[in-house]
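Worked problem 6 (solution included).
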Amino acid sequence: MARHTGPVCRLCRREGQKLFLKGTRCYTEKCAIERRGYPPGVHGRMAGRRRKQSEYATQLREKQKVKRIYGVLESQFENYFTKSAKTPGVTGENLLVMLERRLDNLVYRLGLAPSRKAGRQLVRHRHITVNGRVVDVPSYQVSPGERIQVKEKSREMPLILGSIESRGKEGTLPWLEVDFKSQSGTMVEIPTRETIPIAAEEQLIVELYSK
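Solution. The predicted structure is:
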């Protein structure tokens, strides 16, 4: 499956803000966006001299930002939007909730992986179980009450132990319960927009797809 394989810091620079694609390393390393606060490419330095972004460009950048934060492809993102539009409630909030319920995202949110990309690798390499059953589909939609856990044979992996050591000091989101001793966690309820810690204006994405 196609994935971005270049420097992830370029993606942050393109969106003009930290997307924390390296996980905890974004807190410990000096980010490229701090050294070069302009978009990548030969015309990046000219960004400040360009005319104001159009409404469409603003909406597109917001969609690209959210898509890159969660590490999903264009077709996947469109499918999420279509499903969220058919689900009762606010479309933009539904979209973010679906993205948050992805298994790879929850492995990251629980502190079992340093980033969503690392969480996706753990899932694909069959290191993660849901209710005792191995699930190797990163896009699996976790339901409230389902228990996510690292397989017993995988619990000594340096990546997981390092993530728990660094992320274990952070507070847990109110809709999650985590037990670092057993390397497991549970989504106790469906998250709401107020409890999803992501700086995004999802209404701009709704407006983009509504054109």
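Discussion: The chain has a mean pLDDT of 85.
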